[in-house]
Amino acid sequence: MTAPFLQIQSLRKTYDQVVAIDEVSLDIRKGEFMTFLGPSGSGKSTTLYIVAGFQSPTGGRVLLDGKPLLAVAPNRRNIGMVFQRYTLFPHLTVGENVAFPLRVRRAPDAQVKAKVDQMLKLVQLVDCRDRMPAQLSGGQQQRVAIARALAYDPPVLLMDEPLSALDKKLREELQLELRRIHQQTGVTILYVTHDQEEALRLSDRIAVFNKGRLEQVGTGEELYANPASRFVASFIGNSNFLPIKVAGVQGSAQAIFPNGKPVSCDSVSRGLNVGDSGMLMLRPEQITIRAQPAGRDRGGLPVTVRDVTYLGDTMHYAVATPWEQEVAVRTSIGAREASLQIGARAWLDWDSVSGKVFPA
Prior knowledge:
The two termini are 40 Å apart. Helix 2 runs parallel beside helix 4 (138-150) and helix 3 crosses helix 4 (138-150). The strands form four sheets. A six-stranded mixed sheet has the order 6-7-8-3-9-10, with helices on both faces. Strands 13-12-11-15-21-14 form a six-stranded mixed sheet. A five-stranded antiparallel sheet has the order 16-20-17-18-19, with no helix packed on it. 23% of the residues lie in helices and 34% in strands. It has 360 residues and is α+β, with helices and mostly antiparallel strands. The mean pLDDT is 90.
């Protein structure tokens, strides 16, 4: 088995009594697109800045290709960086901006010209070579910043919320551009975002941060289908959390809703025992809504329809449980129950394998 290309080992960062990063360890493969995902203040950007050399950790190690990185000066780490703001030199043309890191490294003129040509072709801005940054759109400026960061063939490219200042349509277009660029170059990318959809679109794997710690690392599919914690379940995708009381843990767990309705659950977090309170997680698309109950062997939770929204390819229902908790349900248009209007009585069903129980 090949050794990881970039290793973050027991990384810790404190500011007085505040713990920004708490024992973060992570292995990144060569050529991998790894995204750090989490809310503001979760430690994802601090971890990135330590790898870049902009901050020093309180403890821990970072290894690049097996060699210690923290003792190396930031300007000698040879790591590319793209920020939220484009940080282009306003007095230099697009071509000169891309050439800048090569000029600093005293590359021969012929090599500089060839590399600038290659990078501008990569980001599809060949016709903009002689323009000034002020003449470009926000998306074009960010593509120039990416070209400049890749011009000197860095082993790792760090990207800190590079698309968050752009509008939704342009952001989605550049996400596709980033995937294409990554596939063409094979560069190892560490990408920071708080946008779960962006993380799912771009990443080979996602590292979910929360309060300075790593909650879970995996592919988008793994995190969505098998969240290790309630936080991951709520941060990746949309989820409903219904309160239950554990009634049995032999085989598939048995639980009871606040209205006394029994429910079976195949997946229960470790440490939950009979009598404990828990939260049953159900994704909106995993729930079936019916105008009539489906039978005693199914979920059959009675609800009242509060809202119905047409979303093109899906219908979104907001329903209220007997204990007045709002639950989101999403179905395909073909599965729409014609009689379900606001105020109507309805029943919810789901497969027992769909729900996961976490501690309350």
